[in-house]
Amino acid sequence: KNAAPQVYDTAAIQKADSAHYLHPFTDFQDLASKGARVMVRGEGVYLWDSQGKKIVDGMSGLWCVNVGYGRTSISQAVYRQMETLPFYNSFFGTTNVPAVQLAAKLAQISPPQFQHVFFTSSGSEANDTNLRMVRRYWDLLGYKERHTIISRHNAYHGSTVAGASLGGMDGMHAQGGLPIPGIVHIGQPNYLEAGHGLTPEEFGLKAAGWLEEKILEVGPDKVAAFIGEPVQGAGGVIIPPSTYWPEIQRICDKYGILLIADEVICGFGRLGRWFGSELFGIRPDLITFAKGVTSGYVPLGGVMVGERVAKVLIEQGGEFTHGYTYSGHPVACAAALENIRIIEEEGLVNKVAEDTGPYLKQRFASLGEHPLVGYADSCGLVAGLNLVRKKGATVHENELFDEEQGVGMICRGHMFDNGVIMRAVGERMIVAPPLVMTRAQIDEMTDLIRLCLDKTH
Ligand code: PLP
Fold this sequence. Notes:
By secondary structure, the chain is an alpha/beta fold. Helix content is about 40%, strand content about 15%. It contains 17 helices and 14 strands. It has helices at about 10-20, 30-35, 60-65, 70-85, 95-110, 125-140, 160-165, 170-175, 190-195, 200-220, 245-255, 275-280, 305-315, 330-345, 350-365, 405-415, 440-455; strands at about 40-45, 45-50, 55, 115-120, 150, 185, 225-230, 260, 285-290, 300-305, 375-380, 380-385, 425, 430. The strands form three sheets. It has a seven-stranded mixed sheet with strand order 4-10-9-8-7-5-6, with helices on both faces. Strands 11-12-14-13 form a four-stranded antiparallel sheet, with helices on one face. It has a three-stranded antiparallel sheet with strand order 1-2-3. Pyridoxal-5'-phosphate (PLP) binds near residues 124, 229, 234, 262 and 265.
């Protein structure tokens, strides 16, 4: 199995890498000076690099390899589909069988308001689709002014021009003239940063209230939609207080604003539900998905379109002039069908809800007792911990490291060297392991994390 060559010339690969390959989100010169780590093989929750080192993949690749590496039934499904029909588009009156089957399957596993799906190849393209779709929806209803979309600071919604504009990351907005017009941002429900003097529940209501303030500032008749990740991922695993989402839902309902749940990370079992919005009891009108739909084996994304929007688009819309060559790609859809079959057969959604999610929470709570950790929390199989110089009496009184010290990156370096992948967002260290991770593997991962915290201390 995985008949990869055993010996790699790492230096030669690194040389060619820096000579020709511009990596995403990378300081090219910095990478060239250090040399990229070359990953060559994966099995279950483990990766191997070109020097034969085994690594626990605490990040599921990039939050996507939900069913773990080395699933031959997915590669076989992909192979069979490539042999049968490697490509055909869904433009101009045609369709293909895996795309139809997957659309029906997604309608079955998503909340009842979702009966339709628009396919893309990535989460970014899906959010571009959202932007155009919600504006088209309001145009068709005769509200042509209703084009503003409200998002949150530090949100991540992709890297295309619309995706990065919807996202709220200053570093991205600083490059390329973003955000584009018609997109505004409010604060994120980050209790650690903004919840001083409040209980988490009080803070959740306060943070949701920023949405209402922004709606009133922009004008309710100009706001098309609010977009948010149920749990913010790339912004640092920001798990909102329990009061936040129900209040957001109430405000969206009050002003008739569409609610878009970006579930690119939270979907397909990550939070112990098929979709994270189910955990928080909200009823989005649109759901963005990608990553876990195929466990990253083949690129695929899309938008689940709720009946409120679908009905208008279908019955009043005529042609929707939007789409991608690879919308409904048969090979990607075949991979997704097999991936979802595995998730169902192995009961991975319930396993996260009832077994490994609570276990990870317990293990992270014990990491929270480490002198370097000022705060640790988790939701399903995402978790984070904050590195602090000194703990205070409350989480708001912790003494923080100076950003310039780069303690998060130092800690991440120890993780990398000691065989576990954890991501650093400033001083917040995060994991999102494959949903197949067992309790014993959670122990292995958290023991390695503890070791690296000791080394960082
Ligand atoms: N939305 C969220 C919540 C994400 O986390 C990501 C990627 O990390 C995206 C959208 C963009 O997806 P992609 O990288 O597939 O374009």
